[in-house]
Write a structure and sequence with these properties.
It is a single chain. Helix content is about 35%, strand content about 20%. It has about 250 residues and is an alpha/beta fold. A 9-stranded mixed sheet has the order 1-4-5-3-2-6-7-9-8.
């Protein structure tokens, strides 16, 4: 029979787990339309698009399912998270475009978002980014590196392939064993619809009108502050990603 101490420790452990599951304190704000389009001077100058559960201070963090839809966010309403002061959340379907005035933004950041769009949707999204950035505005983003994947697959780099399988693919006795299965698991899982390397994306960005297109380094930029929030050094994503910065 378990001792009283063990029962108490188990109860405390379960209590801490429940505390971790509690939602953050979300402060509702006014309608997004009033703040983003109704003011003569836009309140937000920096957007974090496709934020998921990563909330960056000083940014408007936008997603159609912010924080995995664990909490009851109303669409088209702004929220501030008490635990991350200065981090605002907007639940918004980006298929409607970017919720910002033309030429109003200074910075746009997105990570592992573009590959979830079809080719045509991706082109339109990047055009929207260009339109909403102001003169000299900068966009930075991270993507799975198709060239890196091809190189590791052709060279039979089992260390890289097994790393990805362990961190990003489900356990399956029939799939994700052979290198080709792991490679296609990256290409076709997670809602991915496109693949890019630096050459293909830089050509597309230049066609849209972006300039100063450069490869970046994970977690380092002179144009973006608080990259420790957007590109944390403990993120597994950095090992399969390439970073691009470009300017309007």
């Amino acid at each position: 029979m378990p001792s009283l101490r063990k029962l108490l420790n188990k109860a405390l452990s379960n209590f801490r787990l429940e505390l971790k599951r509690l939602p953050p304190k979300i402060a509702p704000q006014s309608s997004a339309h009033d703040v983003l389009w109704g003011n003569a001077t836009p309140f937000f100058k920096k957007y974090h698009i496709g934020c998921g559960s990563i909330l960056a201070k000083g940014y408007l963090n936008i997603d159609d399912a912010p924080m995995g839809n664990k909490y009851d966010f109303k669409e088209h309403h702004l929220y501030e998270v008490d635990e991350v002061p200065g981090a605002f959340i907007l639940k918004y379907d980006l298929a409607q475009g970017i919720p910002a005035r033309h030429n109003s933004l200074q910075r746009i950041y997105h990570s592992h978002f573009l590959e979830h769009l079809t080719r045509d949707q991706g082109v339109q999204f990047l055009k929207d980014c260009f339109d909403t950035l102001g003169d000299d505005g900068v966009m930075r983003f991270a993507l799975p590196d198709f060239r890196l994947w091809c190189t590791n697959y052709v060279n039979g780099n089992h260390e890289f392939l097994n790393w990805y399988r362990t961190n990003f693919l489900p356990e399956d006795e029939y799939h994700y064993r052979a290198p080709s299965q792991i490679f296609t698991g990256m290409l076709y899982n997670h809602g991915h619809q496109m693949a890019y390397d630096y050459e293909s994306i830089s050509m597309l960005l230049a066609k849209i009108g972006f300039r100063d297109i450069e490869l970046g380094v994970w977690g380092k930029s002179t144009n973006f502050d608080r990259l420790d929030l957007l590109e944390p050094q403990d993120s597994q994503r950095q090992f399969e990603s390439f970073i691009v910065e470009c300017r309007k």
